[in-house]
Structures are given as C-alpha cells and as structure tokens.
Write a structure and sequence with these properties.
heterodimer; A: 143 residues; mainly alpha; Globin-like; 69% helix; globular; B: 147 residues; iron (chain A); Hemoglobin_oxygen_transport (chain A); heme (chain A)
Chain lengths: 143, 147
Amino acid sequence: MSLTQKDKAAVKALWAKISKSADAIGSDALSRMLTVYPQTKTYFSHWPDMSPGSAPVKAHGKKVMGGINLAVSKIDDLTNGLLELSEQHAFQLRVDPTNFKILSHCVLVVVSSMFPNDFTPEAHVAFDKFLTAVALALSEKYR
Amino acid sequence: MVEWTDKERSTVSAIWEKIDIDVIGPEALARVLIVYPWTERYFGTFGDIFSATAVLGNAKVAAHGKVVLKALDSAVKNMDNIKATYADLSRLHYEKLSVDPDNFKLLADCITIAVACKLKSALNPQAQATWQKFLSVVVDAMSSQYF
C-alpha cells in the first residue's frame, strides 16, 4: 500500500492547510491518546503531569508534529528520511509499534475536528496511508 | 458485563442526539469504502463504488449508510444489553453476509471521524474515550456470534 503520486499531492495539500496549527494538533492528539488509550501512559511515567493540555503534553505534541513535518518533506523516501528517528524509537524509546497506529488514529480525529471541510474522504485515505508509511519507516530499525 | 457510569451514559446520549443519522451514516460508509477499498467486496450489487467520486455520488451507499447508523440506535437505547441486542445482526453478518469482523472496527473508526467532523471540539478527549468505548462494545457484540 505504497504512496502514489496522487497520495503525496493530497498529503502535501492537506499539510499546507493544517501545518500552521501543528502545535495544537500535536497537543490535542497526544491528549486524546493518553485519555482514550490509557495504556499509552506507561511511556510517560516520568512526566509530572500527563493530563490533557499540560505543559509536558504540549511540548511533546510539538515534538511529534515536528517529526510529521519532517516526514512530509521526506515523503519520497521515508525510510531514509526518518532513519535517525527510527533508530531513536528502536534503541532508546522502544515504543511498541502498535502505538503508532493508535497515535495516528488520534491525529486523524483531531484533523477531522479542526478541519472538517478539508478532511474530505480523499484527503483521509491519503493521510491515513501516509501515517501508516511513517509508522513503517519508524519501525524500520526495530529488528 | 459492561459497566457504564452515569457520566458515560449521558455522554453517549448527548453525542447521539447531535448526530443526524441521514448525514453521518452515508458519510461514515463512504469513508469506509474510500479509505479501505477492499471493503468493496461486500457491496457487489451497489454498482460503481470504485472511485471516491463514484462512492460519494452512489445512492445505494447513502441509503445503506442510513440503515447501518439507524441500527446503532438500538445500542444507544439498550446500553446494558448490547450483546443480546445485536445477536441476530451478528449471526446475519457471519452466516449470510460473510463479513470479516475486522471490518466492524474500520466502520467504527470512520463513524468516529465523521462524528468528529460534525461535533468538532465538542468531542473532547473524554467524550472521544467514552464514544470509542461504546463503539467497541458494539463491535464486540457484532463479532459475538462468529464461530
């Protein structure tokens, strides 16, 4: 299920519309992930505050969306483009890859709620494929 | 037995009240067919469902979307008995329709996204958690009569 030229164009078009709100999207998506899928909290036990919209959640949401921004710019070669991030996730963070799907879903819900007119079914399929491809690239170095 | 707090019950009802079945149903089903195109296998009699444009303009898809979302009403009205409420539908989807139960989760996700588009920030993290808990109970009930 690799990204076609049409998918890449759709992702870039959507990103152009939503990237100004990247920080808010990241914070909201992460807040939802921690609330809707409480098992994900196990990765953040070192945070003083895991509640929705808290300082650590906001900061981390911004970081994650920075990664997505990088991925958009490297959309033609995600495996190589995200190599460093993959190594970080594989060897330091060791996040179970099922969680990539969970966070992706939360990102989709946030984008739907913030940009309902732009998140058409066509944009939805392209962005879902993109986030799946990003997750795959991030898992590249796992084993 | 699934336990529901009073807050969860009122959250589900409040969300349901804001949903127009005739709009959200078609939208959710259209998204399923567009985002997960392999689901086209179950709708051989619907005519052209092989492009996003075709799906979005297809009257049978819209009609069926309404049927599916209307059925969710039974769960909203019978939150303490969702498994029994969907036993017959589950059997139908298994024995007659041969639907892979993984597809129920795909539909649930598309319903959530369609609801998010409509409710926007009103579907806050806690509401989303409750709504997804509700849908996962429905998904389990729909899978309950399989093998």
